[in-house]
Amino acid sequence: MHDEARDVIRPVLVVTLLGALLGLSLWVLQPFLPPLLWATMIVVATWRVMLRLQKRLGGRRVPAAVLMALAQLMVFVVPLALAIGALIANADDITNWVVSLRHVELGEPPAWLAGLPLLGERLAEGWRRLAAQGDLGPRLAPYAGKLLGWLTAQVGNLGAAMLHVLLTVIFSALLYLRGERAAALLLRFARRFSPEHGEASVHLAGQAVRGVALGVVVTALVQSVLGGIGLAVSGIPFPGVMTALMFLLAVAQIGAAPVVFCAALWHFSQDAEGWGIALLVWTVIVGGLDNVLRPWLIKKGADLPLLLIFAGVVGGLIAFGLLGLFVGPMVLAVTWKIALEWIRTEEPPAADATTGSAA
């Protein structure tokens, strides 16, 4: 009796100890987990690019990994550093602009506003009602203070984001150097966890990450670049900032069309109807790329249902933030594969009743 109790207590203690060690390890590594996850997603999505670069460099892995890390620095760190520098350099102007919101007065609505289809007259009438109330300072003062506090907080957040990006680049370089070893360890763990479907699930997760990287990120990049070209050609101020904003909106599945549409409205407000009409046409073209380019790229990167990838992207973005763009489709893809395999598994044939009774 005592031996049976000891046999039950031992595995409980072992599982408890392993769970405590795992929890403490995750607690210690918590500051490094987001950069490590980002680095893993980036390396999985760009691994083939690194292999092609390594082949062109005579099969040398170290120079290829260094060049890939430098490319990430140029893509992520340099724009972030420029954004921080721009905020610091224009801190006084931004503060003065926020303070000036407390003394805003509206005049008559511009003529083009009433000429907008469907909502033009309503918008103009609302503008007149606000203008009739006089100085908007008392109403805007609380929001101006909150806006100023938010802008101040973002400067500190940008510094933390810079450190986050630097850690991501360092982890990416290490994974490029030791990618095969890390993949082998992950496959061994997956086989121990599930001998039948573990390895296939790992490969499917990689396909999901590559599909999202191709379909979502590349489509967002193409949309933002084309939209930025249209804004720069038409003379919109700060086209670089607008291009970055379009990229973020496209990644978030909102699209670049709202920014281009607002730029068209700005041209109408400046009595430049020609550029306004041109940008409206460009809005339709840039916004329509979503429906053509993204499905084709996702199917090219991963042989998975398009609806599954889209649900994973949107749901993951809502649940986990920007990292959820990759985590969401990966989780849904693995779950989908396991569920299909379970459904397709044939049940063992039932024993013959006659044979059983005869036995």
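Above is the first protein from milestone M3; the second protein from the same milestone is given next.
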Amino acid sequence: MWKKLIFSVVSFVLLLALAELAARQVEENVSEQADRADIPSGWQQGFFANVFDWHEPDPELLWRLKPDLNNQYIRTNSSHTIGPEVAIPKPANTWRILILGDSSPLGLGLKSYDHSFGVQLQRLLQDSLGSDRRIELVNASVAGYSSEQLRRYLAMHGEILEPDVVILYCGNNDASISGFCTDQELLETQRLKWLRQQLSCLALFRMVRAIVGGDRQATSYDGREFKVRVSPRRFGENLTQIAKQCRRLGCMLIVVKPPVPLMWPAGLQFKMFTTVKDSVGHLIVAPTLAASLNRPIRYCLERNRMPAWYGEPNRITRLIYASAYRDKLAPDSAVAYYRKKLKADPNSAISLNNLGVAHWERGEYDSADHCLRVARQAYVQESVAPSTEVSQALGSVFLFNIGINLLAAGLSSAPDTAEAMAHLDSALQADYLSLRVKRTYLNQIDSLGRQNPGVEVIDMPTIFTDNGGESLFIDHCHPTREGHRLIARELYETLVGR
């Protein structure tokens, strides 16, 4: 019996070895196989896990902050969170605040992390309570994180950290396109990633995968739809799960509705990443998306207006603005050039748009308004799938240009430029190619507050609008120091009021 079993096992191993040799021979004779075993996961994972030097890959959460960072802007501990080492278990007479968020709670864009709202809140509370209780801040925010990652982080670390209050700030990354997979799909496949990588070393496994699932690498960019990282519905589910986790932990949950600017150039932010490669030399943006982002479409942008809106721009903002397409023609020459192009193709949305921008540059706002509106209609008609997030995002530039031209012209009938702001808001809601939260996501936060009496929701978009609007932003989503002060003040009043 044992001899038969051993003989069967040896025969099976030899058969597999022969099959592997045969598979390798087929690979060599037919074609060179790509090194990548999987469909590209998305440019944001490639950027944060392999390009942005503050981060490193994480097997559970896709990426995380590196431990023990110590630079001008950020300091991390051995637990990969911001600040000093976190004592486990929590010391007596300590009131621990846990911040879960993205790059905004990190104070990205500020001259110092000490200006971020978490640090300001800690100081306000410590001054209020004196020495009776120690206020401790644990900032577990990570640049690029979505609600999917934050929910999983709290599930993994919440019980150990023992927070007294959790402050949640997210949504800007959720409502953006990164690749062909949602964050939920990426995180679910992450658990089997090591095994797949090991099996992918076997030619037999690669061949079976190709037979069963087709040549995934060859078709990975064709016929596939891009997806937002977290849908509004899933965003609401993640918020609900975070609220449930906080109830189990016996801690308070405060959700900050992220404010966003309207003047940011819609549909442009990701263009600067189209040539960036990851650590193994692969482009982090899928070619089809890169081709769309690199359309020769002009924006109503003036560099001298950037400081008026957002203060002195940081390096990233300057790069994003500089990435906008420019035809290098003087306005008069541009008008003549695009009129000629339109004779050959009267319905070209891009030529109509670019002609409108040329009129805008010449101060011919009525002519610009006509061209830009016709361009918008032409784009909607020519779009193959106008309902998809990518099509909406690529069309957001037309709405942005109409809004900026209306502001410049004063064409709106209402003195508060309501029509212009409505177009800019529409551009924002369609702009899945920038990291800006959308109304559908903010509605989920409101719904969470209504359905969970113990959850506090702070309406920062309204507060920002009432206290300076665009001037409170550094860029597409990050608040200024004054913006952080307003957030800290609202958090303090929410906590002290209880």
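Note on the second protein: Residues 2-30 form the longest helix (29 residues).
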